[in-house]
Design goal:
The complex is a heterodimer. Chain A is an all-alpha fold. Chain A is built from eleven helices and no strands. The chains are: A mainly alpha, B alpha/beta. Chain B: Keywords: ATP-binding, Nucleotide-binding, Phosphate transport, Transport.
Chain lengths: 306, 290
Amino acid sequence: MNNATDTLIPAPRTRVTDLTQRSHTARRNHLIDQTFKYLGVAATFIGLIVLAYFIIDIAIDGIGRIDWDFLTSLPSRKAEKAGILPAWAGSAWILALTAIISLPLGVAAGVYFEEYAKESRMNHLLEVNIANLAGVPSIIYGILGLEVFGRLMGFGESLLAGAFTLALLILPIIIVATREAIKAVPSTLREASYGLGATKWQTIKWQVLPAASGGILTGTILSLSRAVGETAPLIVIGALAYVPFVPSGPMDQFTVLPMQIFNWTSRPQAAFLTNAAAAIIVLLLITFIMNGIAIYLRNRWQKNLK
Amino acid sequence: MMTTEFLIDTHGTPRVKLDAPVYRASEAASAYDARVKPQSTFKLHTTDLNVYYGDHHVLKNINMGIESNAITALIGPSGCGKSTYLRLFNRMNDYIDTFHMSGQVLLGDKNIYDKDVATEELRKLVGMVFQKPNPFPKSIYDNVVYGLKIQGINKKSTLDEAVERALRQSALWDEVKHDLKKSALSLSGGQQQRLCIARTLAVQPDVILMDEPTSALDPIASAKIEDLMVELKKEYTIVIVTHNMQQASRVSDNCAFFYMGDLVEYSDTKSMFTHPQKTQTQNYVTGRFG
């Protein structure tokens, strides 16, 4: 084929290559390259198209139903009079309480693992189990919450029982997010702090946590937006489907948006399905806004680290 | 001679006695002691020092004194142990899990590896400037006062005074005095490094350790730092690790050459660069290897 490979010293190349023509191998490589590119695009769009179809479908059904009365009315047996006030108020309560419970616990555990924990079998076991917890189905958390928070600790069917259960559910995610964020803090920052005589805790408080806060918040918000959509564990602990009042304290009974949606979709009347679609739009908006905040924080945080 | 050296290098044991005739490091160190300065002028001292990372013997029986109010340069090829040696003096190696050592590291006449030594207190006396400028992502002012604030000093007038003094000492005051509230990250690399020096000075240490402080800077910014070091040695003891031979010969008073964990030669800088006693040293300082 090529004489140059036969001799030790390759002959000077006199061949003129046409740069606009690909060789046989290059053509094949190019083809594979393009194939994977379009496969990737297709994979991305399948998910998006399904989501878009769903959103459009829901919007057509429900958007006309959303008005001020819908947001501020109590549920009713008459579909056209029913509203989602207790549901979104309950979701807001759950969200706030879950955040208050899970954030300090998750961050403290993450800090422990990254900054204090030594290599030991015990800590390794803990780490593996936290990773496992993240994979436990949420209904199992519901049963756990019913037993421990509902019965053992006597919170009953209250907001507090629900918030503790959901806090437990998202704790592994917050711990992992905290650890990743702390890992991303440059070691030069720690060295500088230690070098000036700071203790470990001072270094964590003044350097590590501020630098990691963006990542921690991002992880927390994303996990909370998962918690706000959870239904199964709350059904198990006994959240009510029909709540004709707005909860006024953490020990009150409650419902949440997904429960309300679930309740409405299980009814035969078409008018209730319209209500469900409208409630879904509200729930989606809440999660989209939360995710948007998380993305904004993450971008700002990445900029700050550079 | 060759075989003996070979044996020592292979086994690299700390069991070799100090007065063993073949031990080059101790020879070099004692040569320095006799030739230049009495021990009483030493600010820092290491005796029978051996450092290991796990099984790896990083520093081998180092006996060396560091003169106060002078600049001591540690030179040698990468991996020779000079940075490890520097970081012994403020116990920065403590954060490396596999680090262990034997022997003594004396600050004055106190062994800083004694059990009763508080590392936070030690680091107030022995400050450090790092290879890459690493200001905190805060304002210039907050960077300088960090070391004081963590000691619980919060009085504004005291902090203001400390900021001005430290920034003047580090030759940065005139450039930043009007924007002390500006982010430290908006400064140039050279300014950032001088800010890191100011931050160290604000704590009023006795010793300043510098780990390749100009390796990330351009020649003009480097020259400024070098001038600053010469200025600072009037009040402080400075130990600097550098890969830049010109820098070592320009600024340092004494120079120590490390190779594979051994202190090969240690003398005043002028003799080191004009009449090195060891061939290895000569080859290194003239750029023939390393």
